[in-house]
Each structure stands twice: as structure tokens, then as C-alpha cells.
Amino acid sequence: MRRFYRAQSDQPYTYYEEGEGLEAKGHYWTMPRYWVRNGEVERHLNWKTVLMNTPPFISVFDDMLKAIERAWDPIARGHTGVFVAETTLPIPQDTTLTIENHLGNVVDLPILQNIDDETGTTTFVGTEAFRRH
Q1: Rounded distance, CA 17 to CA 107, Å?
Q2: pLDDT tens per residue across span 36-51
Q3: Residue 82 to residue 8: CA distance in whole angstroms
Q4: What is the SS3 assignment for 71-133?
Q5: Is 7 helix (H, G, I), strand (E, B) or coil?
Q6: I need a surface site. Which of 9, 16, 70, 81 has the fewest CB within 10 A?
Q7: Torsion angle, CA of 19/20/24/27, rounded to 10 degrees?
């Protein structure tokens, strides 16, 4: 089992339910390359950026202390009800996701994936993998 942590507030871009986990507000039927284009991940990770569309990403940390550090960002922006949410992947598997990146190159992104018959598939991609490809 792997644990992940996220700074949440009363004004989140992500839904959180204790015992259920996290869910992105953005749901789109688009090719992954739309969201993996140059700079899109960095814009998502920068909380000061105003995004036109809510991305289908959920930023999490595998280190609780980093999530606690990140929690100061929404506090500084005036958000209330700030806390660190925890979610788990019961049976994570290392695999790859084949995508076409913003340059038109087909690449295999290393991912961590959990497939559950009830809740569906959860896919984690590290920021290093995005930046490398």
C-alpha cells in the first residue's frame, strides 16, 4: 500500500471525501497529449497561475512533510479550512503510459497505477517523468 498527501482547503480544485479519496474537478474526453504539452504541468503545479480550464490532475506528495509545507500556500492566499488529506493506493503497480507529447514524439511515461473494479483506475505520474518527456 502506498500513501499520498495533498494540501486541501474549503476552496479546492479537487474534491476530497474522508474514506473515499480525491477526485479532480476537471473531467475531459481529450487525448493525454493536450495536458502533457510543454509547460502545462508546471502551470498546474504553480498555485499562483490562473488556469483557463481546471486540469484533470491532482497534485499529491508521497512525503507528508512536503504536503504540510505546501499547505502554507492556500493559507497565504486567504483560504480557510486548510488541512492535509491522505489517500492510499492499495495495490499499486509500476507500468507505463504510451502518449504522444507536445513535440509529436511517442513516449512511454513511467506511471504508478491502481485498478479497482469499484472505483476505477487511478494513475500517478511523477513530475520528473513529465519534465523528462
Answers
A1: 34
A2: 665 666 666 666 666 6
A3: 6
A4: CHHHHHCCCCCCEEEEEEECCCEEEEEEEECCCCCEEEEEEEEEEECCCEEEEEECHHHHHHC
A5: strand
A6: 81
A7: 180
